[in-house]
Design goal:
mainly alpha; two-stranded antiparallel ribbon; two-stranded antiparallel sheet; 8 helices; 4 strands; 61% helix
């Protein structure tokens, strides 16, 4: 996810990069709010910005404190049309937004595995199950 935010690949997430990323998710973040977000993590010797290590540490802490909020925000990121479901195209777009290159075949397999009620879309409940399943299978660092 850090790589998706760090548009110029200099190893630092700036206020502008944060705002750009949030805009792609459908959120308009004011300059003041973006500055406050970045300041909560660090002011680097290059100026106001966040390193990858700081971002990972912040995400880890936030995730522990707000697991349900992370899932809801992630679901909203994928559910681009806001209808409460993630379509196959929305799943592919969301994964690509996060920097994951996925083939159409891989997306079809993901949908087949996650879409338990076989309606061709993922509900929040189905999304949570698959995300928690991924967590359980992820290696711990």
């Amino acid at each position: 996810m850090f790589q998706s935010l760090d548009r110029n690949k200099d190893g630092i997430i700036t206020k502008t990069e944060f705002q750009t990323f949030m805009k792609t998710l459908g959120f308009n973040i004011t300059d003041d709010r973006a500055v406050r977000f970045v300041k909560t993590m660090h002011i680097t010797d290059k100026g106001l910005g966040v390193t990858e290590q700081e971002f990972i540490a912040w995400m880890s802490e936030f995730r522990e404190q707000n697991p349900e909020a992370i899932l809801r925000d992630s679901f909203r990121m994928f559910d681009r049309d806001g209808n409460g479901y993630i379509s196959r195209d929305e799943l592919k777009s969301g994964l690509e937004l996060m920097g994951q290159k996925v083939s159409d075949g891989a997306v079809s397999v993901m949908m087949k595995v996650a879409d338990k009620d076989k309606d061709g879309r993922l509900s929040f409940k189905e999304f949570v199950k698959i995300m928690r399943g991924c967590d359980a299978q992820s290696p711990k660092k």
